[in-house]
Amino acid sequence: MELDAKIGVLNNAGGSSEVSLNGIKVVCGINGPMEARPRQELPTTCYLEVIIRPAIGNPTVREKYMEDKIKNFLNSVIIGNLYPRQVIQVNLQILEKKNNNSSYTSDSDESAATEDVLLELNCCINSAFLALVDANISIYKAFNSNIFTYTHKGSLVKDGLSEAKSRHLVVYGIKNNKVDELLYGENVGRFSEKKLFMALERGEKESMILHSKLKELSVESVKQKFVYLS
Amino acid sequence: MSEEFQLKPVSFSPEVLARIAPELSLQRHLSVGVRPCLRSFQEFKSVQINPQLDSINRYTSNQGISSKSTVLGSSNIKCGNTIIFCTITGGFIETLLPNDEADENVKEYEKIYENSEKQENNQQDDSLSNFRTVYPIIEIERGRTGAPTDEEMIISQTLHDTLLNSKILPKESLEIDLGLKTVDKDNNEIIIYPNESKDIDSSLFQFPRKYSFVLYASIQVFSRSGPILDAAWLALMIALKSTKLPCVYFDEKNSNLLNDISSLSSKKSVKTGVVNAKSGSQIICDPTKSHDLKLNNSDLYTTTIGLIELDKDFSVEIEDVENNEDFKALSVDKHTRNEGEPILLCDIEGDAEENAIGSRVVVIPDINTEDDDNLVSVTIIGGGSKVTKQSIQNSIGLAKLRSKNLQQQS
Amino acid sequence: MVKLAGLSLNEQEFLTDSLKQGIRSDGRSLDQFRDVEITLGDQPGYVDVRLGKTRVAVRVSGSITKPYEDRPFEGIFTISTEIGPIAGAFFENGRPSDEEVLVSRLIEKAIKRSGALDVEGLCIVAGDKCWNIRADIHFMDFDGGFIDASCIGVITALQHFSRPEVTVSGEQVVVYSTDEREPVKLSILHVPICVTFALFNPKEKEENIKGGADGNEEAGEFAIVDATMKEEGLSNGTLTITMNKNKEICQISKSGGLPAEGLMVMDCANKAYGIVEKLTDQIKEVLKQ
């Protein structure tokens, strides 16, 4: 499914974006850099706080787990030295989520929740990138996330179908319009080494395509914000 | 007159340096080919799998007393200096029937709605919803109690998700075939189970509700010295392997009591739907009879590998060190690696390694399959040193080797 | 709410002075409600409400569970109202302030306690199975009027939501997927709408104590409808009236220290009715699409 994104959707947040992708809609709002609470303060770099809220119910361990995944690589993307003893807060609110299971039993919810972790992460990461740009936070490199699946017949397709043999989430960092490095990869299911690298390669290509799209969007939003530039 | 001013070099003990400048400490160690924990780069921690604690298990102990025990399976492993205990307990919940399994009357009515789509769904027995997982709780001993730390929460969720994604616990393993407690001709109480008594009319076992087990794992970690995902997973796997599920029967006699007991249940857990007393009080776990928990594959092991690049600015001159007597005794990695390729470190341990290694690769290979598709999960966390194709390949190779070793041990 | 977040003394004085003259910074008249924009999601039960710059998203969902033991014939209806820092950095994560608690209490009173949702209709098997309807309110942007916006959101989402059909046969409960059978709408008994007034006292604090020799003394305090964040911060008290189209007051709550004249409340209730009528029609219109 096509990515649909808007930048600057919230007024109170320093930067914000709204992204719909694969039936999931996420709003990201970034607060900061702002004064840190003493407990969070780091002398040489910024403290990164990622908060994810689910569409339904209260945040649980599952959201903590997703927060950790995003925090892991975001820490190396943001130029923390520029914001010593400050905190940058990345808020992600998952709004809509297609649920294809209509059986309403607790256990099928359970497996769906685990299955959706990758899809939600995918959407959250792309949304976080746009919001970071909107918030004017300095980053070393751009990044975006793509998700691929191998079908049972062995073909590689973009975007996650639930009945796939394996699923691959790939996040690449992009510097000077070139793919720089693999920031995060989550591969689950049954797959071979060859398939893994094929998915990573495909991810490299797709992330350039997605990058040019996200770039267009962010250039547009910067133009609107700084009217005097045009 | 100008005062003489001199900068004195400051020196720290290795422990202090590892805490305040982990990067520097680690780089210095690595440049001479040794790790702060004195293991060589690709040496794993020794793992000792202790015999399971039979005496606390409900079904394996010889003592009659422990039939009151709620532990269904357990494990005790030692990994380096870290000790991990894992115990499996369980409960049961009522399963809501999907409408294609509902009883006949409804089915008749249903036929109009039956369509090809449903049949398609039945074929996909590979779908994640046909597999179950356990609910782990991790406690890392840290000298005080309190709310779980972020690390504990993240690891327990990782275990939960990984177990489900690796599809080793099929739904059927946890389904309960209810037995029946009844009286025979001579008025003796007997318990019969559907699978052991073929001559008994199977209509006896038509119960209106279906139940299945839910498993919980409590994992306790003592003297943690590095990331513990690998060891926690190993403990969980071994505990699951030893798990025996109780046989469960329906008590005909007590079914009248149900209203008196209903007030006992105070749990309102919605998520796991702890069985309510009204319908659950007649369902009883057999104190002696049990059966093994069936797993699709019990030889999955996670291996975490840290990636770090050598930084020339921090390196120590090799000659200075090589003459040192203590140093000679150590096995030193003469790195024969390509420029630009990061060093792979197995079983990250200690402050310096944990804080300075940003990039990690976590691999779960399936060593039992003949198939080409022999990887179950590969997680790559970048951000530290660059994760290259070569290093991923090497990590996968190491993980396979490690898994085979562990398989032999357990 | 958040007291005077980042307002300078000059700005405070300017805003109160102009309010006294009946001028609001956004050009509205004192009793004018901001324009409400209601967007329905693709999925049943998802509603996005914008009230000026305030934005609230509501997600209603349903699952099957066991009813509370003391209420075996009723389904469960919960409203979750947790304000995260996404709505503004002054909301702390996981630590609700007193004002936030007040917001959730008011929303609960306005919708749950007023019996807007027929919970008895959610019962499947008495004492054993019932529907648990859950409304999650996601506060996304704050510019005053959280209570009003969430109330509109929840009541619209409840009407928009539909649950799958369930049949009971003997002891078995069968749930039909949405393609098998048309899902069922929830039964909503009435549509309560909240209107919040911010109360202002134009005089010094002491002068507000009334009951002088002549009871006719002009009290002077006034109320404005649907305050923005700045106005909320400056106000001396709030009055929330929940009404439905039948001119019934479901809930009324006045907070803040300012004593208000009884007649003013009457006046507010009248104004509120006009707004409620308009909003109810708007909701109906949106749901028709």
TrEMBL record, chain A:
Domain Exoribonuclease phosphorolytic: 3-137
Keyword set, alphabetical order: Exosome, Nucleus, rRNA processing
Keyword check for Transport: no
Residue ranges that the Swiss-Prot or TrEMBL entry lists as coiled coil: none
Superkingdom per UniProt: Eukaryota
Gene Ontology terms: biological process: exonucleolytic trimming to generate mature 3'-end of 5.8S rRNA from tricistronic rRNA transcript (SSU-rRNA, 5.8S rRNA, LSU-rRNA); nuclear mRNA surveillance; poly(A)-dependent snoRNA 3'-end processing; rRNA catabolic process; TRAMP-dependent tRNA surveillance pathway; U4 snRNA 3'-end processing
Record-linked Pfam families: RNase_PH (PF01138)
Protein name per the record: Exosome non-catalytic core subunit
Organism: Saccharomycopsis crataegensis
Taxonomy of the source species: Eukaryota, Fungi, Dikarya, Ascomycota, Saccharomycotina
Automatic annotation (TrEMBL), chain B:
Principal location listed in the UniProt entry: cytoplasm
Boundaries of every Exoribonuclease phosphorolytic domain copy: 70-246
NADP in keyword set: no
Single GO molecular function: mRNA 3'-UTR AU-rich region binding
Family that this chain belongs to: Belongs to the RNase PH family.
Coiled coil region boundaries: 99-126
Keywords: Coiled coil, Cytoplasm, Exosome, Nucleus, RNA-binding, rRNA processing
Biological process terms in GO annotation: exonucleolytic trimming to generate mature 3'-end of 5.8S rRNA from tricistronic rRNA transcript (SSU-rRNA, 5.8S rRNA, LSU-rRNA); nuclear mRNA surveillance; nuclear polyadenylation-dependent rRNA catabolic process; rRNA catabolic process; TRAMP-dependent tRNA surveillance pathway; U1 snRNA 3'-end processing; U4 snRNA 3'-end processing; U5 snRNA 3'-end processing
Protein origin, superkingdom: Eukaryota
GO CC entries: cytoplasmic exosome (RNase complex); nuclear exosome (RNase complex); nucleolus
InterPro entries in UniProt: ExoRNase_PH_dom1 (IPR001247), Exosome_comp_Rrp42_subfam (IPR050590), PNPase/RNase_PH_dom_sf (IPR027408), Ribosomal_Su5_D2-typ_SF (IPR020568)
UniProt KW rRNA-binding keyword: no
Compartments (UniProt record): Cytoplasm; Nucleus, Nucleolus
Name assigned to this protein: Ribosomal RNA-processing protein 43
TrEMBL record, chain C:
Protein keywords: Cytoplasm, Exosome, Nucleus, RNA-binding, rRNA processing
Keyword NAD among UniProt keywords: no
Any GO BP annotation: U4 snRNA 3'-end processing
Molecular function terms, GO-annotated: mRNA 3'-UTR AU-rich region binding
Subcellular location as annotated: Cytoplasm; Nucleus, Nucleolus
Domain (Exoribonuclease phosphorolytic) ranges: 32-164, 190-258
Any one cellular-component term (Gene Ontology): cytoplasmic exosome (RNase complex)
Pfam annotation, one family: RNase_PH
Primary localisation category: cytoplasm
Record family assignment: Belongs to the RNase PH family.
Protein name listed in UniProt: Exosome complex component RRP45
Organism: Saccharomycopsis crataegensis
